[in-house]
Write a structure and sequence with these properties.
Layout: H1 2-16, H2 20-35, H3 38-42, E1 45-47, H4 59-65, E2 70-77, E3 80-85, E4 92-94, E5 100-102, E6 115-118, E7 122-123, E8 129-130, H5 136-141, E9 148-151, E10 172-174
The structure holds adenosine-5'-diphosphate and magnesium ion.
Length: about 180
């Protein structure tokens, strides 16, 4: 627990020091690699996330791909979250933690989801993931059977991430070289 918090602190400090153009540059490379990934190319229904400033920027990517694929986004509801369909930027509203979330009904057809692209504070090469500390993605991903790809800046890759029994592991982690 202590170790997890130390890594979160370290990552927060590192990302604070990154320039905006650096984040954009890495983000573009990472999302290009996602577009080249057969898991993405074959997926029709994809769980993504509408990024916050300290995450890989997914806004343009979602706006573009939502014309071809069904893009789902998480919505925080208390200690849990549900999934809703992205129906355009104008149909997002600020929710908990200042995250823009889709308005509308919950999407509960979990088995139709082909791929989840997941943000994180840190990942290791074995797919272990560290979140912000509330376990939202652990709970959400426990409903899904599809492959999960973690995406992060290079400075968020650690040799090993402590993990507990409830932690959901990624099938792949996509970053880019420094
Ligand atoms: P994060 O994944 O955000 O880094 P943790 O893995 O430390 O955070 O989990 C935070 C809390 O969420 C833990 O105290 C854990 O009990 C709770 N949690 C995680 N997954 C589940 C789950 N599937 N069901 C219920 N509680 C969960
Ligand atoms: Mg966790």
């Amino acid at each position: 627990m202590e170790e997890k918090n130390n890594i979160r602190k370290e990552v927060r400090a590192k990302i604070k020091q990154m320039y905006g153009w650096e984040k954009d540059y890495y983000g573009k490379q990472i999302l290009q690699a996602i577009e080249a990934n057969p898991l993405f190319q074959q997926a029709q229904t994809i769980l993504l996330y509408w990024s916050l400033p300290d995450e890989i920027n997914t806004h343009l990517f979602i706006n573009q791909w939502s014309n071809e694929k069904t893009i789902l986004l998480p919505v925080v509801i208390g200690d849990d979250s549900e999934i809703r369909i992205f129906q355009g930027e104008e149909k997002l509203a600020k929710g908990a933690f200042n995250i823009d979330e889709p308005i509308g009904e919950a999407y509960t057809n979990y088995h139709s989801i082909d791929l989840a692209i997941v943000p994180g504070m840190a990942f290791d090469k074995n797919g272990n993931r560290l979140g912000r500390g509330k376990g939202y993605y652990d709970k959400l991903l426990s409903h899904l059977t599809c492959p999960k790809i973690g995406i992060c800046f290079p400075c968020q890759i650690f040799p090993s991430i402590p993990h507990e029994e409830w932690d959901e592991r990624m099938n792949q982690v996509q970053t880019t070289s420094l």
